[in-house]
Amino acid sequence: MRILLLNPNTTSEVTALMARVLAPHLPDGTTLVPVTGRFGARYIASRTAATIAGHAALEAYAEHGHDCDAVYLACFGDPGLLALKELADVPVIGMAEASCLAAAKLTERFSIVTGGERWGPMLREFVTVMGLGDRLAAIETVAPTGAEIARDPDSAIALLAQACRVTAQRDGAGAVILGGAGLAGLAARVQPHLDIPVICSVEAGMQAVLAALRDPPVKPASGDLARPAPIASTGLAESLAALLARS
Amino acid sequence: MRILLLNPNTTSEVTALMARVLAPHLPDGTTLVPVTGRFGARYIASRTAATIAGHAALEAYAEHGHDCDAVYLACFGDPGLLALKELADVPVIGMAEASCLAAAKLTERFSIVTGGERWGPMLREFVTVMGLGDRLAAIETVAPTGAEIARDPDSAIALLAQACRVTAQRDGAGAVILGGAGLAGLAARVQPHLDIPVICSVEAGMQAVLAALRDPPVKPASGDLARPAPIASTGLAESLAALLARS
Amino acid sequence: MRILLLNPNTTSEVTALMARVLAPHLPDGTTLVPVTGRFGARYIASRTAATIAGHAALEAYAEHGHDCDAVYLACFGDPGLLALKELADVPVIGMAEASCLAAAKLTERFSIVTGGERWGPMLREFVTVMGLGDRLAAIETVAPTGAEIARDPDSAIALLAQACRVTAQRDGAGAVILGGAGLAGLAARVQPHLDIPVICSVEAGMQAVLAALRDPPVKPASGDLARPAPIASTGLAESLAALLARS
Amino acid sequence: MRILLLNPNTTSEVTALMARVLAPHLPDGTTLVPVTGRFGARYIASRTAATIAGHAALEAYAEHGHDCDAVYLACFGDPGLLALKELADVPVIGMAEASCLAAAKLTERFSIVTGGERWGPMLREFVTVMGLGDRLAAIETVAPTGAEIARDPDSAIALLAQACRVTAQRDGAGAVILGGAGLAGLAARVQPHLDIPVICSVEAGMQAVLAALRDPPVKPASGDLARPAPIASTGLAESLAALLARS
Amino acid sequence: MRILLLNPNTTSEVTALMARVLAPHLPDGTTLVPVTGRFGARYIASRTAATIAGHAALEAYAEHGHDCDAVYLACFGDPGLLALKELADVPVIGMAEASCLAAAKLTERFSIVTGGERWGPMLREFVTVMGLGDRLAAIETVAPTGAEIARDPDSAIALLAQACRVTAQRDGAGAVILGGAGLAGLAARVQPHLDIPVICSVEAGMQAVLAALRDPPVKPASGDLARPAPIASTGLAESLAALLARS
Amino acid sequence: MRILLLNPNTTSEVTALMARVLAPHLPDGTTLVPVTGRFGARYIASRTAATIAGHAALEAYAEHGHDCDAVYLACFGDPGLLALKELADVPVIGMAEASCLAAAKLTERFSIVTGGERWGPMLREFVTVMGLGDRLAAIETVAPTGAEIARDPDSAIALLAQACRVTAQRDGAGAVILGGAGLAGLAARVQPHLDIPVICSVEAGMQAVLAALRDPPVKPASGDLARPAPIASTGLAESLAALLARS
Predict the structure, then answer these.
(1) Do B18 and B87 fall within a single domain?
(2) Could you list the residue range(s) of the whole structural domain that residue D124 is in?
(3) What is the pLDDT of residues D2-58, one digit of tens each?
(4) Count of CB contacts below 8 A, E vs F?
(5) What is the pTM of this model?
(6) Which of the residues C187, D5, D69, F58 has the least number of beta carbons within 10 Å of its own beta carbon?
(7) What's the total number of domains in chain B?
(8) Known Pfam families for this protein (chains A, B, C, D, E, F) (predicted)?
(9) How crowded is the C-beta side of C74, counted as CA atoms within 13 Å?
(10) Which CATH number fits the domain that encloses residue A165?
(11) Could you report the predicted ipTM of this complex, rounded to two decimals?
């Protein structure tokens, strides 16, 4: 079984970090196919970068996804998620989507702690569209971006733990998601500082991917996430154009 | 790994049906511990029966759950779910909860098809409290109860398929949950009649249990689903009283 | 006219306290029939205890409610409320339900002050299901449980008054409910410290019961709160089993 | 005890009809003080008429309310309700407000049947601001206005019963409010045609007034419904100007 | 083109202030017809005053609106807005309505800063009925009323700028509306103190009026804002009675 | 004044059609700068195509927007809207955004009629994120896509008028938006068949652009739509990369 690990930003070090953190979670016979966005911002910390990343994710899937059994869209905020679900015939899991659904099993109200302040309103919208807005206690952003945290994780632990404690107490959160590719693996180090569950978004997404592989859902042939009607295009990567054009 | 398969109604045939349907899904080294409610209605098709079943579920857990690694609350509508999550130190998964979260990964709006008309308003409330109310296309109840369907599944297939088709077209659902212990295993027989995914609630719950076993979350020590403060009680099964009294 | 005063926890002192506080409010020809739960936690301050109490309330009604003209479910949080409404042929009023509806007549946004922190998320869900979530300014829980307040009310007055003032100012509440059986009669002593209405939940529930007695509504014969279809059961108190089985 | 029965439209026959229907419900020692709006539309069936009626209700209160113990704003849709609550020192009850709160005790989802199609969107807004939007199954308007129904009630019974049945079945309503002053007393004649409770809005409002008289709430001295700060005015009835100017 | 500048309070100085501020924004060939309410409170800072102002606005329109091409209801909170839209055949724009829609184009979440604390809950309701409740970051009221600010604007600038900064930082607002006729023209003086857009409600309303004049919408002949059915009335200004009676 | 007319699909005939329809609406001294997406689907009728179009819109702005005074994102559904608002220093108006805000001024509940069934769920999400979900009566999609309608508008008139009438009557809409670039100019031809306003989305967007030009808002320097922090990128058009990198 092959899993497309799709990092839609353009920093391959982040892709590699995730592959490293995820390796011990891979069952036998399962392979990660790590892919980094071909174009776009180094890190995604704005609506502009996220919009470009949506296209990059689709292209990456078109280029590298053909023989994969599942797609893991591994950027917290999930740029292009619903389009990928529409386009792909295999299960597509988003990191933020999976993390929020995992948190919803553990508590009535969860919080998200992540890096980069612009993600606050962007994630609030994401959770609202998911329908889980009433179960979101708060989004707490810390000043360093996910990318900066990834470069110096040791000094981020105390900061993240403090943000988690603040939202647990102030907002009554019963679980906290550490959101972001750059925070891969840090939840285990933050957990000892907290008495509620701390969820690693990278691992939560992976668990959802593995669950989908074990019990693959039927691809809808009608409805809003069915394959779109074929359409001609221009200026796209050949592989992506072919996917749009297939009947 | 032992999974408490907790059927909170008092019909052991339904427990057995579920155990039979779930057996092929059990990984090596995993055992089901099937338990049926000690008291309550034969089937749960009213608020009265569901309220009693909440208590029965807690008692069944207290009696039989001590050496289990996870609890599967296997009644669609999940009576006692949040109390079990509070009380137990191991992961607790509800059948309706897991089914709705599974459906939410597949489509923007899903429907539930189940037996017994009183479940309509009861499930609408359940989904609202889950926060997924905006993603629920409709609840379509068919006249036979889940129990009646379990006794004569063959004649129910056409009825269920029709109900699924109706809600897919009329309400724009992109996936349908066949909800109810009595409908265990029928989704596979209904699926060929539909072009959107049909989810078996019994299997969806099991997948969530297995996922929780692979990646067991930390039990919260504070917040709304932490273990409750110890309290004296009277008139309860000894095992349940002991759980309430532990510090 | 007989009113079943149904305390679903198992502490008869709380039942007696409520009967004492309510006595002066009883019109001529009206009798209280006080009943305490036969089984369950001493006090209800967790989801576990509330779930058990739902069953205890149904049994208490089945045992003692047969010649009553109304049921007063006298535990703030109303465990088993909708099931009781479904099962009983006479009006059933919950203490939290009545208090919230009373507050809604006095102000656009009300707060609840109660004892026991676990009630925060439990009551938020209750008010949401009632549909009044947008009119709830805040739930302010004080550290002692309702039971502890009942044992030493004098020292609780200042604490409660302070909690009321905080939510009035911080959250813009226009009325405050003092919620909980253990707080029976304290609103009158807290009111002088506040310039907005302070509602005694025990008395508010009683007023609603008396109103229902004066103008008894028709029992619905269809819809979600009609009597449930008859069903066999096992292991229940004989009286409750008989109610479930009646046609 | 004197109750200001305030009909804010300008048709005194409707006021008289309500007084007649309400007379048997008056406890000893309680007097109705019926008042009809001095200015405005004959009947209220538009936003324009309702807006004018809000002012008329305030003036009628200022002119006739000084020695009353409660105010009954007896027009379904409650023009001027919150302003009256703010201005008056005695309890103010609106007919639609009381009816919706009464229905909310009987069922999870209620419907409103009333005359005059423009009331559909007007009442939907009213119920939304009350916070009960999620519990409203539907508003079903029949073609004749409340005024026309009042003039020929006999021929309206079948029409109203049919509208009630439609919304009970199509929308799953568990109770129906017959809304409108002109429909006073008709619920008792419609009830036999239905198996769910049919609520007379005129009587439901009266019950709430009587409840408020028995247990009069404190007038808030702060918050959104406290007496407004004194303000000079021009062109108003002397009595209303005096109320605005009082400190 | 003539624009009815309708100030529904009774202080003509405020009308004059707005006319002065708006003059430079008038295109050639466009005339303001300033009108002040004939009756009601000097300033509108309560539900009582707002309710009366709704009637005053309708009368002012009936008296002075006949040859106007658009109506500008120039009181933040828009008393009588929907009734005016229903009654008038020309476009009607409310100051708060237009300001909120303008803010919604600039940011995901906006705040309102205005004078007079009672406006807090009144405006929250207004924005909720508009449907924009989820995009309202906060309403921040400052102690002086709009009227007091109008009399001494210089000393209000610092206060208003501070309130804007507070809500920008604490609530994450991306734009702030300075709401109120009395604050006309102050946004330009507050803007330099802030790094997000500060919207003058008086000017925002005017822009919407001018847009409506350039592209006048069709008056609906059915639906909730169509002209109401003709109705007799009593006690109204002759012009208003005539509008109600026209077929 | 120069307006970037940004068509993010790749069919220049649609761009030309809009330019032709908009020409008579251009004031003196205002120029349209029509641009068509460089890459992507011919028409946008899926999430996949819309996601790609978001990137295409950003690139088109970067390439051609530098000396424009406003941006008109002229595709109903507004792919990339918030990212463009973030990135650009001049006002950005989306066609669906402007149409919905225009409709909200005319009625309490509006409907959208458009071509291409996949737009149903996509637009429902769009309107929800706008916050106007409660004011949306319905989205009615007709079978031909906007592109097909553009090619043969004559035969579409009856179909569109019928869809408008259906939603007006069935859903109580008080105004209808004809949504889509391909439907440019058809509202005027559909209007005579309806008695409620029919809004041309192309013209409604243009009016909002002109209003923004007359009264240009301040670009926020903080908050969620401020210019994003500079970031390096790879693989983008040089002009877009420069915009991302600017400090």
Answers:
(1) yes
(2) 96-201
(3) 999 999 999 999 999 999 999 999 999 999 999 999 999 999 999 999 999 999 999
(4) 137
(5) 0.94
(6) D69
(7) 2
(8) Asp_Glu_race (PF01177)
(9) 37
(10) 3.40.50.12500
(11) 0.96
